[in-house]
Amino acid sequence: MTTILQTSIPYNPLDQRPLPGIQPASMDDWLHCDDAFAAQMKRRATLLAERRSDVLALDPAAMPAAQELLELVVQYTHPGSTDHVIRPDGQGVQVDRDRPLDTLCQLVQEDFCILQKQGDEHVLTGAILCFPASWRLSEKFMRPLVGIHVPVDSYDENVARRVQRLFDGIQPGRPLWRFNALWYEDAELHQPRSAGEPRDITDPGSASFLRSERQTLLRLPETRAVIFSIHTYVLAAHQVAKMENPA
C-alpha cells in the first residue's frame, strides 16, 4: 500500500447532496493543486510507466479532443507556456502533443475522462485514470454513460436521464462540479476493481481513511467533447474528525 494523504479538503465531503449533486464552478477553480501534489505526481508517473494499459486508453477518433484538452490545461495551469512547463514541485515537463494523455498525467493531479456524443449517449472514448476508486478503465472504455454506471445501485433510469440531459447542456467555459465521500481501510490511490467483484463498503465508524473525489464536467469548445475530471483527496480518519468538530 502506498500512503499519500492530504491534510484537508477545500469543501465539506460529508455534506449530503441528492444525486447527481451538481453545482456551478468557474474556470479559475476548475483544477486544484494541494499539499499532496509532489507525492501524487510521483505515484502517477510510476503507474503510467508500470501499468500503462490499466491507466490510459484512447480511441484514435478521440485524439483531437485529447489534444484540445491538453492545450486547455496548459493554458490554465501555465499561462504563456507552449512546449515546456515547470510544475509546482519544480519538475519540468515537455508538452508532447502527440501523446496528450501522457503529458496530462505529468502536469496535474486530476485524472481525465473524455466523453463524446455517439447517437443519443455520451461514450467514454479516452481517459488517463491513475486513481480509480474501485472500477476498471478497461471495463468502461468505449461504453456509454448508462453502461459505465451499471454497478451503482442509486444510478437508476431516472438519474440516467437527468445525467444525460445534464451532459447535453454543458457549455464551454462553464464547468460544473460535484463530490463524493468513500470510506476505505486502504489509502492506496490506485484501486481498480472489477464490476463483478464490488468492494465491501467500509463502515465510517471503523474506517481508517476518507477518500473524496472532486469531479468536474466541462465541454471543450472545438471538439465539443465533455471532459470529466477527478481530483482525489484522501484524509486520515482523525483529520476528518477535525473537520466535523473544529476547535
Coarse shape? globular
User: Topology as H/E string?
Assistant: EHHEHEEHEEHHHEEEEH
Give the structural class. alpha+beta
**Percent strand:** 15-25%
Count of DSSP strands = 10
N-C termini distance: 32 Å
Count of structural domains: 1
* Portion of residues within helices: 25-40%
Mean pLDDT: 89
Q: Major beta sheet, specifics?
A: 8 strands, antiparallel
Radius of gyration: 17 Å
The oligomeric status of these chains comes to: single chain
Per DSSP, the total helix count is 8
Unreliable stretches covering 5 or more consecutive residues: none
Task: Describe the overall structure.
It contains eight helices and ten strands. It is α+β, with helices and mostly antiparallel strands and 247 residues long. The chain has one domain. A hairpin with a 6-residue loop joins strand 9 (209-219) and strand 10 (226-236). Helix 1 (37-50) runs antiparallel to helix 4 (100-107) and helix 3 (63-77) packs parallel to helix 4. It is globular. 30% of the residues are buried. The mean pLDDT is 89.
